[in-house]
């Protein structure tokens, strides 16, 4: 079907630490459980209501998987972009089951850590103060670390400098 889009954007909290597995071919796969919540006031009782949805997220991107494994912990707030995929499997009892997941593919997908370094748990404070190692997350949008499939986040000019400081000849 021409003109269709399969894109999912989630902003939520991790329900547990990432689960890291390797395929038979040696590729790293990281699974996350992300909770998103919706709140509203009930019109009749004027009480605050909340509904939480749980999402299964699978990361097939090696670099994003490394970031998730190293920096994500239960309770961290994340921004994710991926696509929906439904797959069929057979359970222990021989029953065919279906599961729908948000998938961050090898060359597509985005992962942004949203909460501040002090709030979120994850790596120890010393790791953050020293800065991320090569291949780790870089500082970026949304006040957190950013890693995008296929590149190392957004580079920002050094403090006091700018890409637009060139002299204009007119």
TrEMBL record:
What residue intervals hold the motif Important for interaction with partner proteins? 165-170
Instruction: Give the matching SUPFAM superfamilies.
Output: Nucleic acid-binding proteins (SSF50249)
Q: Recall the GO molecular function terms of this protein's record.
A: DNA binding
Basic and acidic residues: which segments have biased composition?
A: 144-158
Q: Does the keyword DNA damage apply?
A: yes
The segments labelled Disordered in the record are: 121-170
Sequence ranges of Gly residues compositional bias: 133-143
Keywords assigned by UniProt, alphabetized: DNA damage, DNA recombination, DNA repair, DNA replication, DNA-binding
| Entries under InterPro entries matching the protein | NA-bd_OB-fold, Primosome_PriB/ssb, ssDNA-bd
Quaternary state and interactors: Homotetramer.
Extract the HAMAP family matched here. SSB (MF_00984)
Please describe what this protein does. Plays an important role in DNA replication, recombination and repair. Binds to ssDNA and to an array of partner proteins to recruit them to their sites of action during DNA metabolism.
> What protein am I looking at?
Single-stranded DNA-binding protein
Gene name of the encoded protein: ssb
């Amino acid at each position: 079907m021409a003109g269709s889009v399969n894109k999912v954007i989630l902003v939520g909290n991790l329900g547990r630490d990432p689960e890291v597995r390797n395929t038979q071919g040696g590729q790293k796969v990281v699974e996350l459980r992300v909770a998103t919540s919706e709140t509203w006031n009930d019109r009749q009782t004027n009480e605050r209501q909340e509904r939480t949805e749980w999402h299964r997220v699978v990361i097939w991107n090696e670099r994003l998987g490394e970031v998730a494994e190293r920096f994500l912990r239960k309770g961290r707030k994340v921004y994710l972009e991926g696509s929906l995929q439904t797959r069929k499997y057979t359970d222990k009892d021989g029953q065919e089951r279906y599961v729908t997941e948000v998938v961050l593919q090898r060359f597509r997908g985005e992962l942004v850590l949203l909460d501040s370094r002090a709030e979120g748990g994850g790596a120890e404070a010393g790791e953050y103060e020293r800065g991320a190692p090569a291949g780790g997350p870089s500082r970026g949008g949304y006040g957190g670390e950013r890693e995008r499939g296929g590149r190392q986040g957004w580079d920002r000019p050094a403090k006091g400098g700018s890409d637009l400081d060139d002299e204009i000849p007119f």
